[in-house]
Amino acid sequence: MSPNFIHTYVSVDCVVFGFDHENRLNILLVERHLDEAKQIKLPGSLIYSDEDVDDSAERVLYELTGIKKMVLKQFKCFADPSRAINKDDIKWMDEEYKHHIDRIITVAYLSLCKIDHKINSTKYNTVNWFPIHEVPNLPFDHNKIIKESLVEIRRWIEIDFSIIFELLPKKFTIRQLYQLYSALSEKYIDIKNFHKKISSFNYIVPLNEIETNVSHRAARYYKFDAKVYKKNNTKLIK
Amino acid sequence: MSPNFIHTYVSVDCVVFGFDHENRLNILLVERHLDEAKQIKLPGSLIYSDEDVDDSAERVLYELTGIKKMVLKQFKCFADPSRAINKDDIKWMDEEYKHHIDRIITVAYLSLCKIDHKINSTKYNTVNWFPIHEVPNLPFDHNKIIKESLVEIRRWIEIDFSIIFELLPKKFTIRQLYQLYSALSEKYIDIKNFHKKISSFNYIVPLNEIETNVSHRAARYYKFDAKVYKKNNTKLIK
DNA sequence: ACAAAAGTGTTCCGGTTACACCCATGA
DNA sequence: TCATGGGTGTAACCGGAACACTTTTGT
User: How far apart are CA A224 and CA A238, in angstroms?
Assistant: First the structure.
């Protein structure tokens, strides 16, 4: 065996997006403990020897939120040989996994979560939402992963518009959907035309319920009907 | 260290597409040798201990074709624990790498090549084009990888139309481009309208040269101007 | 002359865009 | 009564789809 072939550990890191009440994209970060210090990072784990990566990501998401069957999407393998050469990172891995790890490859996943959903982590003591533009410096190449995940979530919504509803409450107004879509697609759309278009889709179902306590005409709540959507599969933008 | 974390080799496999003169998508496959028997497979390699995956894929492509700087795109990590449990596959790995490998994770890449380009492999004795619909049973999960690569190449062209020209000769007719596009996008487009649209793009440059020896009106040759394209970046389909 | 494909022109249609206008509600 | 946003209507516009027509070349 040529000694210069990689023989390594492989991990999974998950970027979980949420959409807050101030119309900002957020991501979930967890706390890691190094000596007595705390540092935040992306949730992740080494994969098990009998696990597929998708299963591993599903496990990480469950350990993170307590939710089973979250939508998820693998988007990139990060394998820069120097992605884990920071001393603190190596030290943390030594402590966390009780073994010296000199190089580590990670497979990054995207996931989506309603921001009001109760987070019930079975693994982490501290799990918090961070607005995407307020994410501090993170260990390893986690900042890079997050940056690329933003490109990926936009692409994902182009491919499958329906996943956008994973970020909204079950009942939502068209304005909420508009603001989420705007936060993701960045190109301007007239809200009136957006409204007309969205409400013309048969998988956007109007409810007999409107907003309360708003200082203007109350907006109607709608829900997303996934079954109808699957039959038609209309893209928002052709 | 918990013993149930994966500690493994990581490889790269490349699906290289070409477009033949009968308007079929082809892929490059190589021969592997097991005992005295030959078997064809996707080109690939374990990654080196100081290599990033992208670099590794670039190296595999160079060893395969002799071409430097081929376009490439990582598209998925395949890590099913049972993707390498076939006895022949294990035996082959034992011989190829002189070491027993019980599990292997691979990162799959897409690449594109003009089918008339000379193939000058520095590693493989036998490298051949296979029409996509005539690919035989391959070892590991290579058939699965190829299947998913087809979905991916279509997506890639949606995102960046210009990469389609990697599959065409430098001089091409609009009909050639039409047939390639049809092979990839599968939805019918009227060739007249396609012609009109394509020739309206300023990055599709008409040449002072037309077909010869055709039994109908000779078509004009065009070339693709990447610089102009980069400035405008028009998508074929909005 | 005919076949086959290049290349151009024209019409039609549907969806997007840009608004104007009215409605409902709280302050 | 005013400000704010909900919700509807309409007309202009633009790009794609369909297809007719002319051109060019080999057989």
Answer: 20
